[in-house]
């Protein structure tokens, strides 16, 4: 089963998606970290990432996305992976810098980069019961995900949360107004970029559950999504049982069941590991 959590920058997807995955006992994939890892490599190689992307840079970032291995690793004692590696190098900290925040927008807007990374994301989702978080999981990567959530919050609240997170990393328990303001401006810029780009713009899937977390505590948001996922899981098990018993009825009452080729096609539609 796939739980797809999409939403804008700073909506709390990572925190929420991890807690949901823990609660459900599912694997977890932070797809934004994959785009960030490619952007980090581009920065390391000092590629020109100005807009429009020069041809040389485009060619190279596609090559990186297609050929360099992106892995996730576990920090001591953590139940879910939080470390990010590209080509064997640990870039967990480096991909979260403001420089990487800026570089990732043009990199993630490139169709060639997206195709390469989406392929890996699909493979991951087919091999595990998983929570995947990003911008296009419910619309492009897994349009048939059983449970889709579009998580949002006001841009001010998202900026406030991000600023507090940064302050905590620096050992402080408050953020200044200037810090919140700078992050707010960056969030507005990324919202605009993510939702107006040509390929996979950030937009809720028509069948996603819209969750505005502006006035909600983390626990409440997690509880809502876990309940939704369990309900969807029960529904799909019910559908599975119903169609199984209908199939048994058909095979008991009729020797002329549907041709094998058609039955085979149907079971191929969803890989066994996701059922
Ligand atoms: O979620 P994040 O801030 O770590 O994402 C980093 C960037 O990658 C962000 O600019 C949007 C982009 N992204 C994307 O285009 N598609 C995804 N599935 C995930 C992230």
The gist of it:
The chain has helices at residues 13-24, 31-44, 55-67, 98-108, 111-127, 137-141, 155-169, 177-196, 218-253, 260-268, and strands spanning 2-6, 27-30, 70-73, 83-86, 89-90, 130-134, 147-152, 209-212. Helices cover 55% and strands 12% of the residues. The chain has a domain at 30-128: 3-Layer(aba) Sandwich (Rossmann fold).
Question: What is the secondary structure topology, with strand pairs?
Answer:
Layout: E1 2-6, H1 13-24, E2 27-30, H2 31-44, H3 55-67, E3 70-73, E4 83-86, E5 89-90, H4 98-108, H5 111-127, E6 130-134, H6 137-141, E7 147-152, H7 155-169, H8 177-196, E8 209-212, H9 218-253, H10 260-268
Parallel strand pairs: 1-6, 1-7, 2-6, 7-8
Antiparallel strand pairs: 3-4, 4-5
Describe it:
The chain has helices at 13-24, 31-44, 55-67, 98-108, 111-127, 137-141, 155-169, 177-196, 218-253, 260-268; strands at 2-6, 27-30, 70-73, 83-86, 89-90, 130-134, 147-152, 209-212. The protein has 275 residues and is an alpha/beta fold. The protein has a domain at 30-128: Rossmann fold. The strands form two sheets. Strands 2-6-1-7-8 form a five-stranded parallel β-sheet, with helices on both faces. Strand 4 (83-86) and strand 5 (89-90) form a beta hairpin. Helix 1 (13-24) crosses helix 9, helix 2 (31-44) crosses helix 4 and helix 3 (55-67) packs parallel to helix 5. It is globular and about 65 Å long. The N and C termini lie close together (6 Å). Residues 253-275 have low confidence and may be disordered. Bound molecules: 2'-deoxycytidine-5'-monophosphate (DC). 2'-deoxycytidine-5'-monophosphate is lined by residues 9, 31-32, 35-36, 104-105, 108, 134-136, 190, 194.
